[in-house]
Amino acid sequence: MPVASIHESVKISNNFLYLIGGFTIIVGGIVVSIISRRFTTPILELNNIAKKMSKLDFSHKYNITDIDDEINNLGKSINTMSDKLERTIRQLRNTNIELEKDIEEKSQIDEMRKQFIQDVSHELKTPIALIQGYAEGLIENVNKDEESRNFYSEVILDEANKMDKLVKQLLELMKLEYGKRQFNNKRFDIQELITEVIRKSTVMLEEKQIEVEFDNKVPIYVYADDFYVEQVVTNYFTNAIKHVKEVNKKKIIRITNTINKEKNVVRIKIFNTGENIDEEKLTRIWNRFYKIDESRNRQEGGTGIGLSLVKAIMNNYNQDYGVINHENGVEFYFELSSEQLCKI
Question: What is the C-alpha to C-alpha distance for residues 112 and 179, in angstroms, rounded to an integer?
């Protein structure tokens, strides 16, 4: 009996010890898990931030706590490094963008220079040949009378003026096409501008007996650069004078300005009686140096750049322009903003 009792007591003690041991292991495991998680969670967070930084994603930052330990200090260092890397990469990107712009601009300048040389060399061949021929004639005294020598001199001077005009127009066209020209936009009366263009052409109008129909009683205000708008109007108007022909015993140039309130634009239309432009030429006339009538344009001093200038100016303003054939003539038009919508 005493031995059995002892065995029973030992068994109960062992079971108790097992229970205490198991409970201790479970509690210890929980405590270890909590403590290890306290260290591993911020480490995993730092690892995740580092991975995102390697992909140039600096949007995530380590959440700094008030605890002064190595992990918190490491988090501060990671955040500082992230900020510095973000600023550096942003600066590198901005520098790269500026570099690309500089390269593109240089490429455009080179292209502009090549195009300018090509156009000038092509278009100046004829006037240079004429000047050379007439100059040689003067030197060799081909015509000894004063009248002939004056004629030769006048031809040389006229061709030199044409070359000067051509070069200036080409430079202006290049600057407009490559966006190198600044516009001084302001509000002005388009009716007044057109009236002044007509006034400057009074002599030609009287010589050709052309009747101009234009109602300028009511001011119409637009927002643009009046210098370039005057170039557009002048090109259209001088083209109308060159190509106007008699219809029903009258030579008429009609200018009308219509306001489109929905689009907030003013359409300026310049119509002249005469022959229509062939359909295949309606788009080609806007190309530089294209001339419908080569002999007449040279005789009247045309360079073939006028409508190209119109195209470049209107493209800068992103406004509509064009030409329409009518039964008894041709109408050229362009549009301008009637309010401060054009911010070039």
Answer: 11
First-residue to last-residue Cα distance in the chain: 114
Angle (CA) 268-270-271 rounded to 5° is 140
Pairing of strands 329-337, 321-326: antiparallel
* Closest C-alpha among 285, 255, 284 to residue 268: 255
Q: Outline where 124-209 has alpha helix (H).
A: 125-139, 146-177, 190-200, 202-207
Structure tokens at 223: 């927002």
Length of the chain: 344
CB count in 10 Å sphere of residue 124: 17
DSSP designation for 327: T
Handedness of CA 312, 315, 320, 323 (dihedral sign): positive
Give this prediction's pTM.
0.59
Distance CA 331, CA 246 (A): 15
Output phi, psi for 85, to 5 deg: -65, -40
Cβ partners under 8 Å of residue 135, min gap 6: 152, 156
Instruction: Quote the distance between the C-alpha of residue 181 and its chain's center.
Output: 11
Contacts (Cβ under 8 Å, ≥6 apart) of 287: 308
| Alpha carbon distance 104, 108 (integer Å) | 6
Stretches in the chain below the pLDDT threshold 70: 1-5, 7, 10, 32-40, 42, 46, 66-69, 105, 108-109, 112-113, 115-123, 142-144, 180, 290-303, 339-344
Show the tokens assigned to 169. 């127009």
Residues whose CB is less than 8 angstroms from the CB of residue 237 and which lie 6 or more positions away in sequence, other chains included: 197, 198, 201, 253, 255, 270
